[in-house]
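INSTRUCTION: Work out how this chain folds

Token vocabulary: learned, describes local backbone geometry

RECORD BEGINS BELOW THIS LINE
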Amino acid sequence: MFTGIVEEAGSVVAFTKGEKSWRLQIAAATALAGTAPGDSIAVNGCCLTVTDLDARHLHFDVLEETRRLTNFSALAPGAPVNLERSLRFDGKVGGHFVTGHIDGLGAIEIFEQRGADYYLRVRAAAGSGRYLIHKGSIAIDGISLTVAEVAGDSFVVWLIPHTLAVTNLRGRRAGEAVNLEFDLLGKYVEKLLSARSP
């Protein structure tokens, strides 16, 4: 479980296909503190298990399905990735509850500065608009953000300069894919209501 408050933007060192899985190596600093093999780290919002680490790097095994269903398929050496260690229940919850289980990809439609802030419009997969609520929560590449506008399957979030400074969004462009995780409560409500329907 995560909060969507990104701790740092790490950098991909290598992402290669191994005999049994894809192997992802990421250069990090903050996310290494207190981390041990077996711990969960959200990478661009996707929950991965640390398989190994050293003083400057985290290592993960990545399933082919995970690579296919996320924006990991576009990762290359040098790519910035958002990192967050799993939630500690003796600490603050600054965002919203994020599981690290990606629901699908979104496509950036518009990303531009407007005044001091930044306007980001994303189109989610067809039919995903039912999970989008004005002033609700969304995780984009693992970043907890507030939905400002909804139009069908597209939605808008506004970003403050601090968010750009500490996440990988600062290098994003229109047309690129982002990982999306919709609010957990909405998905549970939908499931419960559909079970009651005749």
Observations:
- Residues 136 and 147 are 5 Å apart (CA to CA).
